[in-house]
Request: fold
Amino acid sequence: MPATGTFPSELVHVLKTHNGKSSFDLHSSVTPTPPFTLNCPVNALTFSSYPGTYLLTGSSDRAIHLSRALPNSTSDPTSIVETTSPIQKYEAHGYSVLDVAVTVDNARFASVGGDRLVFLWDVEQGGTVRRWTGHTSRVEAVQFAGENDSVVVSGSADTTINLWDSRSNSHKPIQTLSEASDTVSSLHVHMPTYSIASGSYDGRARVYDVRTGRATVDVLAYPVTSVRCSADGNALLASTLDGRIRMIDRADGRLLRAFGGDEQTGKRHGNLESKYRNKELRIRSVFAKADAVVLSGSEAGDIDDKSKRTDQAHVFAWDVLTGEIIATVPAGEGIKVVSCVAWNEKTNCWAGGCVNGTVKVYA
Reply:
């Protein structure tokens, strides 16, 4: 379906809950110089399941925070609300939190990170109910699968995907998928088609059929930083480190549409020309507006040059049918990376996780 109406781009809420010293790693952000006074990058975020009232955010400060996504109504509807304290903090990781996922009933969530661990949490109790230790390197991606979200799927820099049974007390995975030859950077489970999609730095997007155990492979030539299935399961969205996002037909591997690239430029903001860039870091992309829009964060032109305060990352939105940019939203002065975005269909809003530790919500 076409992208109808105006894409939401009004900043309504800024979360400033993540801060302090961090264990910066390769995929968190640009590594600052000592004494590490910058707020910790937000590496992962997700809305709670329907209706998406809350946000779970994971950061290089090693914590996951639960916060309200949209602020309570204020007397001034044009004001931007800032929140500095989360509703709940979840702390158990020893290194950066790199991904989070939440169950459909919002009772549990899973988190993974640089400490090679996979945690299953009880949202209300605030503690872990399972801790799995089967990976031998940092864990970059996590998803839920199976009946009643009983299976946790994790992807790691050890090149494997592990499936864990949350109903069992076993510390061993029930299945390990080991086709990748480099870091598994991203996962997306599509239960209607019994599929697990994965992206790897070996330049391949793989989709596993859990019923047959077979995998289809799309060779994209560049490291894959993000994968996402469309709601109907017919298309796969894959972000790669050549600065492009490709939408692929899952049936035959045809390229349906490509987004980004050096030839595509967004709206100018002041003297700056916004261009989608993803050359160095793990940037996540998602479908939005009932799969009519592709939404992604980006890198600034020179993410290492902190002297260029006016250079900043943007969040881009493309029309799926035409491939045209329909919105470019500046991240803010000095913010060089927006590494993750999440869309909430119910409230028609979205959030972006920034390198300076903030999360910005737009409606």
In short: The radius of gyration is 19 Å. Residues 210 and 294 are 27 Å apart (CA to CA). The first strand starts at residue 11 and ends at 15.
